[in-house]
Amino acid sequence: MSDTPPESSESPADFDAMTRDIAEVPAVEVIVTVAVNLMSAAAVKLGLTEEGDKYKDLDEARKLVTALAGLLDASATEISSFHAAPLRDGLKSLQLAFREASLVPDEPGQGPGEKYTGPIYG
After folding, report:
1. Rounded CA gap, 20 and 100, in Å?
2. Which residues, including other chains, have CB under 8 Å from residue 42's CB and lie 6 or more apart?
3. What whole-number distance in Å separates Cα of residue 24 and Cα of residue 61?
4. Residues 47 and 56: beta-carbon distance below 8 Å
5. How far apart, in whole angstroms, are the C-alpha atoms of residue 70 and residue 119?
6. Opening angle at CA 100, ends 75 and 98, nearest 5
7. Is the dihedral of CA 15, 17, 19, 25 positive or negative?
8. Cα–Cα distance between 39 and 29 in angstroms, integer?
9. Which of 82, 46, 83, 84 is nearest to 64 (CA)?
10. How confident is the model at residue 11 (pLDDT cuts 50, 70, 90)?
11. What residues contact 102, with CB distance under 8 A and at least 6 apart?
């Protein structure tokens, strides 16, 4: 048995390479990627995937949709409408799905992310 500790799967050189890689990614791409990840996670928590209600959790979905709305609101002037328009459409779809899934729907303007988007009506 060796007294040498096992080597880490990531060496300092790997970290440097990751830093260089992320440095080459445009900010718009990072923002869009984060938004898509938030949308995907919200869809799962809303029960909109093949697994349906298996992972449904409206409290978690509310947080994710609100975070997505905040990100899109904050980055609206930073990303082009080419990127923003489909993200806003996806956000609205998630907000409507949340409203539909809720046993007691929020008042207009009180749903997830509506403080950033304004009231959503189905």
Report:
1. 44
2. 61, 64, 65, 68, 94
3. 32
4. yes
5. 14
6. 30
7. negative
8. 15
9. 46
10. low
11. 58
Closest to 65 measured CA to CA, from 28, 21, 99? 99
With 0-12 / 13-18 / 19 or more C-beta atoms within 10 angstroms meaning exposed / middle / buried, residue 73 is middle
Nearest to 101 by CA among 61, 64, 69: 61
Q: pTM here?
A: 0.82
Given a cut of 90, is residue 23 above it in pLDDT? no
Residue 3 has pLDDT above 70, yes or no: no
